[in-house]
Amino acid sequence: HMRIHTGEKPYKCVCGYSCRQAGYLKIHMQTHTDEKLLQCNECVFKTTTAIYLKKHMRKPTGENLQKCSECDYSSTSVGNLKIHMLTHTDEKPFKCKCGYSCRQARYLKVHMLTHTGEEPLKCSECEYSTITSEYLKRHMRIHTGEKPYKCSECDYICARSGYLRIHMRTHGGQNLHKCDECNYTTPTLGVLKVHMRTHTGEK
User: Fold this and answer.
1) In angstroms, what CA-CA distances link 78 with 51, 64, 106?
2) What whole-number distance in Å separates Cα of residue 33 and Cα of residue 129?
3) Residues 89 and 102 in one domain
4) What is an example of a GO molecular function annotated in this UniProt entry (predicted)?
């Protein structure tokens, strides 16, 4: 318990990750091997921890879903909903002295390492390097052409889960963001902002 107060993280991985408990390191090590011990009985979802599987299993039934008041987003996690709500306000509460700001603490943690120049994970195909195994795995899809996320309604496939979530809205007719100047609609607020420049002349 005292490590919470002292900040000591004695369990370390060669990639730079460190933690307070051996159990957390064991879970982390599976991200390097892609070993996923627990699988959903209803779909292809896999995870290393029982709690994540339990959260996933809530989704099909809608149990305890936290819903956004601005759009159709929902989550089983109150924390995820709070993070999502920042997309409607453009608020970025996590800030670095250099001027960088972001919506999530984990992104700030990643950013802080850019000041030290620490980039321990390197791509074997090009000069790309990163500080997280998640980003490296995502980057490698550029070289492999892997697109593991598939739409259940059509032939659409993509490399990132976020792209699939946006795509799925098109099947439900959920083009939530509408232009005030014309009939243009889009499922993403960022794309609408870019579109609005065609009316304002802003570059």
Assistant:
1) 15, 10, 17
2) 19
3) yes
4) DNA-binding transcription factor activity
95: in domain: yes
What are 60's two structure tokens? 């099909």
pLDDT given at position 162: 77
What's the CATH number where 24 sits?
A: 3.30.160
Global confidence as pTM: 0.39
Q: CB under 8 Å to 181, separation ≥6 — which residues?
A: 196, 199
Residue 65, in any domain of the structure: no
Tokens (6 digits) for 69 = 């008041």
Residue for token pair 């799925």: 168
Write out the two tokens for 194.
């870019």
Q: Which domain holds residue 86?
A: 76-144
Structure tokens at 112: 């802080």
Number of domains in the chain: 3
* Amino acid code (one letter) for 20: R
End-to-end CA distance of the chain: 53
Q: Are 140 and 157 in the same domain?
A: no
> How is residue 1 written in tokens?
């318990």
- Burial degree of 60 (CB within 10 A; 0-12, 13-18, 19+): exposed
Greatest CA span in the chain, whole angstroms? 59
Kindly report the length of the chain. 203
Query: Could you tell me if 167 and 119 lie in one domain?
Result: no
Structure confidence by residue, pLDDT tens digits, 16-63 = 778 777 777 776 776 666 555 677 776 666 676 677 777 666 654 555
